[in-house]
Amino acid sequence: MTFDYTDCDLQTPSASADSLSLTNLTSFSYSLKAGQDDAKYNPPQFAFLNRSSDSGVNFAEQQQCYLQFDVPIELDPTVLLYYKHHKLLPKSSTIRQELERQDQLKGKFSIYPCGLIANSIFNDTFSPLTLLTNPSTTYTFSEQGIAWPGEADKYAETPGYSLDDITPPPNWALQYPNGYTNSTPPPNLKTNEHFQNWMRTAGLPTFTKLWGRNDADKLQMGRYQVIINMNFPVRSYKGRKEIVISTVSWIGGKNPFLGWAYVAAASLFVALAILGTIRHMIKPRSVPSSSRCVLSSLK
Fold this sequence. Notes:
Elements: E1 2-4, E2 23-24, E3 28-29, E4 45-50, E5 63-71, E6 79-86, H1 92-101, E7 110-111, H2 116-119, E8 125-126, E9 129-131, E10 138-139, E11 166-167, H3 193-199, E12 206-214, E13 222-229, E14 241-247, H4 257-282
């Protein structure tokens, strides 16, 4: 199940979470397992809630998208939650100008963690799924066990510098408005699996990253709601953001790439065979004849 929530913040803001102005989602897809792909479902809907004027609201929860969708069949564990989008890193010259304004390239501070990828980390967050017919029923995803084995070995628990010598990346300013302090220390990158997943760069601009997993509980049929805290901007480079809920079997998750690759290769070989046959019919190769052979006399 895939739901595109990019334009949620363009909707008319709702008055409150209790009176949502829901709009039908136009970009979504259901890909159900064989034998159950005819299951009925209602169109997903979303609503935007702007809480920036509410006092005491965490900065990361000010722009919220309420996404409601049907789960038409029961899903057995493992159930996986992904985010998917098209990423384009900002120009390095733009980052350099921003860093110079903050004295971060003048030898005064070291950026931790450094690099354009770390600076542009995906920071939308997702709430547990709430069953709308029974709000006390929630489906939670663990944020542990989502990174590839060995990824944690690439990172350290602490930066190895004094807090006075390091500063967060520019795009982390809202999370660390006063920089790194004793009350807001640098993140433990060795245990931060969301960071580890993000730093493992994808080969293509459109990709999915694992956000959470549930290895124990079935996801029951019903209509659910997830609250998405929208913090990651994509509109400036015409990107898209999607949430993906999927399952996995003993042979892995559903991925049509290999099948389509076989179809494409077979189609290419058939086309080459047809072209070769046509050429042979138009200009056939002459059959060799012994009369055309000239044998020198043997001495």
